[in-house]
Amino acid sequence: MSHTLVRRPQRRPISAGGMTALALSLALAFSLAPQQVRAQDAAVNVSIAAQPLGDALLKLGQQTSLQVFFSPDLVAGLAARPVSGRLAPEEALRQLLTGTDIQYTRSGNNVRLSRPVAEATTLEPVTVSAGILGTLAEPYAGGQVATGGSLGLLGSTDVMDTPFSTVNYTSDLLYNEQARTLADVVVNDASVRMTTSTGGFSDDFQIRGFAVNSGDVSVNGLYGLVSSSRVPVQIMERVEVLKGPGTLMRGIPPEGSVGGAINIVTKRAEDEPLTRVTASYMSESNFTGQIDMGRRFGENNAWGVRFNGAKRGGEATVSGGDQQLDMGALGLDYRGERLRWSLDAIYQEYDTDSFRGQMGFLDADIPKAPKGDTNLFPGAKLTQRDQTIMSRLEYDFTDHITAHIGAGYRDGKNRQLLPWTAGADANGDFTIYNYYYDSYSKTFSGDTGLTATFQTGPVGHRVAFGVTRMAQENGNSFTTGGMGNSNIYDPAPLPALPAERLRPAKTDDTTLTSYALADTLSFMQDRVLLTLGARHQTVNVDSVSSEDYRSSAVSPVVGLVVKPLRNVSVYANFTKGLTSGGTVPLGYGYGNEGDTLKPYKSKSAEAGVKVDWGSITTTAALFQIERPSAYANDDNLYGYFGEQRNRGLELNAFGEIVPSLRVLASATFINSELTKTQDGVNQGNRAQGVPSRAFSLGLDWDVPGVQGLAVNGRAIYTSAVYLDNAHEKRLPGVTRFDLGARYRTEIAGKEVVLRANVENVADKRYWLAAGQNGSNGYASYAAGRTYMLSASVNF
């Protein structure tokens, strides 16, 4: 059942007596845990006109401290009488409900509405294990994150019942921060850091110090179906971040991520009709128009359709550049008593002229970063086009047995006119080569499975069996052109293009197949949850230019959640995984450039504690991940010959500090070490590109006395990193500040939301560690101060 929310409800209000069990929660849990805020019954000014009851309750939530939630069916067809004057909040609520049979129960600021039932019925406990098409988890206090999310094979799970570190961002956060792509969302977590900057070649991330490429982002649980470069925010309803390997949950990530996994949940039509038009501006002169429409129809609103379309164009954060987006996404769904079905069709095309470049460095003395709007490679061009269709079907054979099948296909093409350089010297001078690099991929991705819940004596079980398969054909072409000289502070036009542009040729067929079985056992009335599972994985690569290979492995997973108090979860997990190898970089002179590397194995362990204080949840986790690292050997062949180990501590807090003040806070400390290197050189050093610490803090505040006005701010800190394993090249730490405001009002009877955000308020110049090339890395220069304005109108 969907619910209409008036403000955001506090979740399971509890006492703070859980402090005695918090050895692992450390300082964050105590420093951010607020005292419980009780509703104030002092009279306030209330002015609510006669209108539909649901709308009147929304007004009540805006004008008082009460937080009311209810089913839309409960108030359908009911009207509220006008209520005005100086009243206690609860008295105003009673007056609105006069003449109805609706009852309410109150706990602090929380109010639940219901109708009386003829007699109380004791229901058998049921384990909810909805799949991707199940009801989305309710937003947590503050509305920026959800109380749970999908974990693939393990189902949709509450954060407190999960033996992993997860965060699930809601659409409210995406809108209020004016996120443009997935990258703008995930940086709210300190364990996730961007390795490319706004307006660059692609959106790439780092989770717990290990690279996560865009190609490893799943959509509705399936890999390989969104752009391998960047994902527009317009298709997203939720963004689910799992920190740590996610092989058991969704299978083998196609590009080998081990630090974490990101899943996108696409938009679905809600019960209330939606027609929203948004116009946006981004400095210097980039404009976007977007329409978002949703309708449900049929008996019990069983059928739904949601359409999102966007068009963007104009110069953005690179002087003389042009960033264009054409995007359309259609989502259909059916929700019956036992059958659920969805279909998504997505088209997106990015055309970027003069995108933000990346640079290596020849000397230990790294030059100062150029201005944020510098056009480092004038004339570079990138076109990315992706077409995706996917569908999913779920059926409940009984109340305890559910089957599902999901499948999708994506056709992706990249056409690129790109520069390449060995790196800049201390003065910023560099030699540049111009080339064409075009590529394509054709991907089929699917999964199917069966879930059953049952009891064996006092022990509950959720048993899930699943099969995944991803088949991908890849191809590319690489043609070098002319050579020239340039400088990062005074860039020269690109040298002459190659005489001929080659058609991309097939390089490999990669097939990733897996079979998984997992059982989540519950003991002592769900106070102890034990997850045991394993996934058998097979990687099969038929390569055109190098040796074919096939490799299989079993990835076991053990996860444990213990709840010593009902608001405290202590958890631990251990997993091993097989990961497909990447592609040897082109243009660096390796003897095997362009080859696909063999799979490698990694292992991970984690332990932590989560505490739900009622309106704030705090978490702490200790983790260790070990995986092979890549470099060129004595024969100039690039491969996974070394090993890297990342150990760390994560601290997180999210929710409402007090009513109307929302927080997202996190800190990550990583000890990254090269535990195996070529001939022992640099062994024991920190791995390149991995910060020792990172912090993210975001606050969002409803301004008192000005109805509809809210302001927000965000600080993102990343410590210094090394660009090489020898520790000769070092980028200093940096802090970025962002500010924003929004105003919600009515104009001509239509709801209007005005938003203004500024990123990099201080216009700071800095380098981001962007990637690795053997033992040397390269960097991306950050975007400068960026203004964003938007106006949304709901018709």
TrEMBL record:
Keywords: Cell outer membrane, Ion transport, Iron, Iron transport, Membrane, Receptor, Signal, TonB box, Transmembrane, Transmembrane beta strand, Transport. InterPro entries: Beta-barrel_TonB, Beta-barrel_TonB_sf, Plug_dom, Plug_dom_sf, Secretin/TonB_short_N, TonB-dep_rcpt-like, TonB_rcpt_CS, TonB_sidphr_rcpt. Its main location: membrane. Pfam families: Plug, STN, TonB_dep_Rec_b-barrel. Transmembrane segments: none annotated. A motif (TonB C-terminal box) lies at residues 778-795. It is a multi-pass membrane protein. Residues 1-39 form the signal peptide. Residues 66-116 form the Secretin/TonB short N-terminal domain. It is found in: Cell outer membrane. Belongs to the TonB-dependent receptor family. This is TonB-dependent receptor.
